[in-house]
Amino acid sequence: MGSDKGGLWKEILVSKYGSWISLREDGKSRKISLWWKDLKEVWASEGWGRNFEDRVEWKVGDGKDIYFWEDNWLGSDALKKEFPRLFSLILVKDAKVAELGSWSDGMWVWHLAWRRLLFVWEKPLVEQLRQALLLVRMVSREEDRWVWKGEGLQSFSVSSVYSLVMRDCVVDSSSQLWSCKVVPSTLFTAWRVLENKIATKANLVRCGAVVDSSLCCLCGKEENHYRHLFFECSFAWRVWCLCFKWLDVSFVYHRDPISIFVQFRMSQSSKLINDVWSSIWVGVVGEIWNHMNFIAFNRGWPTRLKCAL
Q1: Number of domains in the chain
Q2: Cα 273 vs. chain centroid, distance in angstroms?
Q3: Do 91 and 213 share a domain, yes or no?
């Protein structure tokens, strides 16, 4: 909602919820969708919302998208937190930056309206705010945009957020894996897949073994490395799609096997349900490996339905 300027989905969300700021608002309402309700819960849980806001800031353009008091666009925090006394006195609390000033002879002039005359001790606060506003450079023909404070300033994108979150997120996949109630040999196969210790053709070649072909036994198109064999191969992907259809779930593909395993566990669910889903993931991985070995050693043909069953 902060980066897509003209998307239809953004217009719908803004018309119904106002802006992304409503994600941090407390309280429940029957008018919000289940999707927005889940998003609010994720935002509030484990500090994810605060973590996001700490790492994003606005680059000011024409000021039409930035909330003057609510957004973090001047300094290290929102102005309503930097100047709580002035925020309580301002006439319009939800005003955009562009609504609190105007252009005069090519210069931007601020117009801050208070709901009453200021006390003497409040005027230094106003002066402090005006000094901070002098550093702002308004650009009339440029839109406001989000800047992501990752490794240096960069344009905001979902991929940049995901990369930073995954870098900071320490996932104990081993403890989640070993809690699965499956056959030990299958569990060990799944662990070798996550650690890239499985005997794929690519790994065998790297260890100096001689193989007749480095191509995948299932599709015959790509090199037989562990990511391709279990997740990127067209045969393997169709197996996963059959599994998702059976479970009646949607799925987002990741290149990293650990991310795929963690995502397969249902968020906000009980430990029992998570363990069941993890066991399904382990079982599918094990069957793909068994099927690949059958094809390789018996010169058979891949059958995704048989593998899924």
Answers
A1: 3
A2: 23
A3: no
Examine the domain organization and report whether 48 and 67 are in the same domain: no
| CA 280/CA 181 separation, integer angstroms | 10
Separation between Cα atoms, residue 301 and residue 218, nearest integer Å: 8
Is the whole-model pTM more than 0.85?
A: no
Please indicate, yes or no, if residue 300 is contained in any of the structural domains.
yes
pLDDT class of 305 with cuts at 50, 70, 90: very low
Which domain range does residue 85 map to? 56-144
Q: What is the pLDDT of residues 39-83, one digit of tens each?
A: 666 656 555 555 566 667 788 889 988 889 988 888 778 899 899
- Same domain for 133 and 103: yes
Is residue 155 in some structural domain?
Answer: no
pLDDT at 127: 93
In a domain, 168, yes or no: no
Are 300 and 183 found together in one domain?
yes
The reply to whether 116 and 36 lie within a common domain is no
For residues 196 and 297, state if they share a domain.
yes
